[in-house]
Amino acid sequence: MSQHRSPVDDRFESRMSGYYLQPDGARVPFPATLCFDKADPFAVSLRLRTADVRTVTWTFARQLLIDGARRPAGVGAVEVRPAFHGGSRLLALTLRSAAGQADVQLPYEHVAAFLRDTYAAVPSGAEGDLVDWNTELERFRDHES
């Protein structure tokens, strides 16, 4: 795992090796990157490399990773649950879109270290203090028009 962060960074990321789970049960390694940006403090992003070397980014609530480490969490596009393989603790994610579904596993310890960094940067309950709600409301209105 590689962490790229300093205490004053507004954005940081953690690179790790994950696994795609094939329908036949085979595990295929791939590079994964978890990203956090204080400009969107409720969310984290997961960047994945696909088999055809495209990068796909999924953005979802960071709380989903916390909840999914303890019990199955999430509904719809992103589901997270605890998993184990060969004695290693993992987080299993099911990612769904119109293009299909991907089942991936990430090393729990790497995800936990990343989450500790996100909560050191923006503690739980302080996220709303960093959001410019007027700007968000304008974006919402523009999107609805």
UniProtKB/TrEMBL annotation:
<dbReference type="Pfam" id="PF04686">
    <property type="entry name" value="SsgA"/>
</dbReference>
<keyword id="KW-0131">Cell cycle</keyword>
<keyword id="KW-0132">Cell division</keyword>
<keyword id="KW-0717">Septation</keyword>
<protein>
    <recommendedName>
        <fullName>Sporulation and cell division protein SsgA</fullName>
    </recommendedName>
</protein>
<dbReference type="InterPro" id="IPR038658">
    <property type="entry name" value="SsgB_sf"/>
</dbReference>
<comment type="similarity">
    <text>Belongs to the SsgA family.</text>
</comment>
<dbReference type="InterPro" id="IPR006776">
    <property type="entry name" value="SsgB"/>
</dbReference>
<dbReference type="GO" id="GO:0030428">
    <property type="term" value="C:cell septum"/>
</dbReference>
<keyword id="KW-0749">Sporulation</keyword>
<dbReference type="GO" id="GO:0030435">
    <property type="term" value="P:sporulation resulting in formation of a cellular spore"/>
</dbReference>
<dbReference type="GO" id="GO:0000917">
    <property type="term" value="P:division septum assembly"/>
</dbReference>
